[in-house]
Specification:
Layout lengths: L7 H16 L4 H4 L5 H11 L22 H9 L4 E6 L13 H17 L2 E3 L28 H17 L4 E6 L5 H14 L4 E4 L6 H12 L12 H10 L6 H6 L4 E2 L2 E2 L3 H30 L2
Parallel strand pairs: 1-2, 1-3, 3-4
Antiparallel strand pairs: 5-6
Helix pairs in contact: 5-9, 5-11, 6-7, 9-11
Length: 302
């Protein structure tokens, strides 16, 4: 005799009952059973990878630390890239056409050239959080939307932790530079403090990076560019270098459409010419900074 299959509703009921039984606390031991053999080794490798493991793929060539894998950083250190630059920028009100990340964008352009010229250096992530004035009640740049400020004690503590992290993981020459005037004194203080504490590494503050009078002099002497201060918290140097990073950070297209494509009396068109000047200026600033870094390192070499 042929037996009828169970009703559809019964099949669903059986399936649900089975699922509930498997997921019940009484069966939890099945999911939490200790890992053994190969599974245990794989889990351990994910949590505590072998520091000497070989990279499974070809290495990337970026000089920016945050763009590298930990294996690529490890191998760069082993190959002699034991110098690292800590750039400090800021997020602040600038001219009416200038993105508030101005200093960070400029540092991205120039630090890459510094590292390339040094040949043995990487670049830490730009520190965007710097003193910009009192927060409450607001003073300085904090009087304007878009600005982010930290207390000077916070800034020094942040730099100290970043520098110590890089020292502990193998960097031996740690370079502090700042693209904003308010960064300079705390950078010097942190470098002086850590230099007295460290034995196996050195730290240097490089004031030569930040030399606005040098850049004005260079532009006048070599590029025939003379600025008239329009009181808008902007300079040709800043705008031109930002255009090298991304013209939209200075709203190039919108300014051209509104016939406002100039800064401090200096026209920014044609764009090709401005970018050429910016390239030469960036190379010049990088070269001066590299000379200062090398001099600082040589002065303490055994």
């Amino acid at each position: 005799m042929n037996q009828k299959p169970p009703p559809y509703e019964l099949l669903i009921s059986i399936a649900l009952t089975t699922l509930i039984a498997v997921a019940s606390p009484g069966n939890a031991q099945n999911n939490s059973a200790p890992l053994r053999g190969a599974a245990l080794l794989q889990a351990e490798e994910r949590v505590n990878p072998n520091p000497n493991k070989r990279s499974p793929i070809a290495a990337d060539s970026s000089l920016f630390l945050e763009e590298l894998t930990w294996l690529e950083v490890r191998d760069a250190l082993r190959e002699g890239k034991t110098t690292i630059i800590i750039p400090t920028g800021g997020v602040e009100m600038s001219g009416p056409y200038v993105a508030v990340g101005k200093h960070n964008f400029i540092l991205h352009v120039i630090t890459q050239r510094i590292a390339q010229q040094l040949g043995n250096a990487l670049i830490a992530p730009v520190v965007p959080f710097v003193p910009q004035g009192e927060i409450d009640p607001p003073s300085g740049n904090m009087r304007y939307p878009g600005t982010l400020s930290v207390r000077e004690t916070t800034f020094r503590a942040l730099l100290t932790d970043i520098a110590n992290s890089l020292r502990v993981t193998g960097f031996r020459n740690i370079i502090l530079i700042g693209d904003s005037g308010g960064n300079q004194d705390p950078l010097q203080q942190v470098a002086d403090s850590l230099a007295q504490q460290w034995q196996e590494a050195n730290i240097y503050y490089i004031p030569e990076y930040f030399g606005y009078q040098q850049w004005f002099a260079y532009l006048e002497e070599h590029e025939n560019i003379q600025e008239v201060n329009e009181g808008i918290h902007d300079t040709f140097r800043d705008t031109a270098l930002m255009m090298l990073y991304d013209p939209n950070t200075v709203r190039a297209e919108q300014r051209q459409a509104s016939d406002r494509f100039s800064v401090n009396g200096v026209p920014l068109a044609p764009v090709k010419k401005t970018l050429a000047v910016a390239n030469r200026l960036a190379d010049y600033q990088a070269r001066l900074t590299v000379d200062a870094i090398q001099h600082a390192i040589d002065s303490v070499a055994p």
